[in-house]
Amino acid sequence: MNKFEAFETFEEYQFQDNSREARRSRPGPKKKKDRRARQTMREIREMDDGIENWVPSYAKAIDPRHHERQWVTESIGPFYRDQIVTDVTRLVKGGKEANVYACIGHPATGVDLIAAKLYRPRMLRHLKNDAIYKAGRTLRNAEGKQLKGRREKLAMRKKTTFGKEVDIQWWIGNEYRTQTQLFEAGANVPKPIGHQGNTILMQYIGDAYGPAPTLSEVRLPQDEAAALFTRVMQNVSLMLDNHLVHGDLSAYNILYWEGDIYLIDFPQMVEARHNPHAYELLERDITRVCEYFAGLGVVRDPVALAHDLWDPYMGPGG
Fold first, then answer.
1. Is residue 130 flagged as an active site residue?
2. Which has the least CB within 10 A, 80, 221, 231, 268?
3. What's the whole-number mean pLDDT along residues 196-212?
4. So what's the pLDDT on residue 47?
5. CA distances from 168 to 98, 187, 275 (A)
6. Residue 37: predicted pLDDT
7. 265 included as an active-site residue
8. What percent of the chain clears pLDDT 90, i.e. is strictly above it?
9. Active site residue: 34, 112, 207, 248, which one?
């Protein structure tokens, strides 16, 4: 800045008070810069995105000493800071591996309700035969990048604290990536919204009065059963077209809402091209679905259905 830039006109500069006292009290360019920097720092320090004091409605009703209060607040807090959710209102589903909570979507998202799935820190204790699902799967970090380092693989094999953390993030990241892939492919799955740490946000299936039930919780009208069975099998076929097998499909993780179905829970999804157990898992998925719909008069041969999908997928000589 030159000496004239601080004035509107030359006359203002010409008739300014240039006495020694005035010059001493008048801030120079450096002083002005330092003052602006200090002001900016004060503003930054005073900024409050609300996350430090944010406690969602659901957590407020919990004893402050209970671990769930802190778990919910800390896990969903980053999404509150990023203006994706504004509140957590209820527990939708509790499980050994994860809990699902109903959240109020921030107006900027255009979504009224969001489901937040929070994985427990010790979820791996409850995953049975996880080696079957991991076989042939690419090891990736929380950001989805392939892990090629020997350190991570060794830590997971030795089950060190670091190795367990890598393993957990691998499972959670796998679910989010798979659900995103399937949604983009047109499958009946809740729309993924975000993923950070142990938390996955997705479309809430249901309404303000409650979540959509699973097939295991309802008695479907018989006139809908055949069409819904076909819809489930179309999704199983679509998954296989994308080289994926659910691996744990049953009436317990298929939602029913407004005459349609939504598949959920994908951490154990396997890659059909690389997992040596893919066909067996596919047949088990179809068998469980057939067992449920058989009670509604829709009787199908699960082994035949599995081969009808698998054999063309593998091609001649497969």
1. no
2. 221
3. 94
4. 47
5. 12, 26, 20
6. 76
7. yes
8. 57
9. 248
Q: Give how many domains the chain has, as a whole number.
A: 2
What gap in Å lies between CA 246 and CA 306, rounded to an integer? Answer: 13
Partners of 119 in the β-ladder: 98
Residue type, 242: N
**pLDDT score for 66:** 85
User: How far does the chain reach from its first CA to its final CA, in angstroms?
Assistant: 76
Q: For residues 117 and 111, is the Cβ–Cβ distance under 8 A?
A: no
CATH number of the domain that residue 228 is part of: 1.10.510.10
134 CB-near residues (< 8 Å, 6+ apart): none
Q: Which structural domain, as residue segments, surrounds residue 302?
A: 213-314
Q: Is residue 190 part of a domain?
A: no
Given 49, 87, 112, 265, the catalytic residue: 265
Tens digits of residue pLDDT in 279-316? 999 999 999 999 999 999 999 999 999 999 999 999 87
Is 289 within 8 Å of 233 (Cβ atoms)? yes
Residues 120-169: tens digit of each pLDDT: 876 544 455 566 655 555 655 555 555 555 555 554 554 555 555 556 76
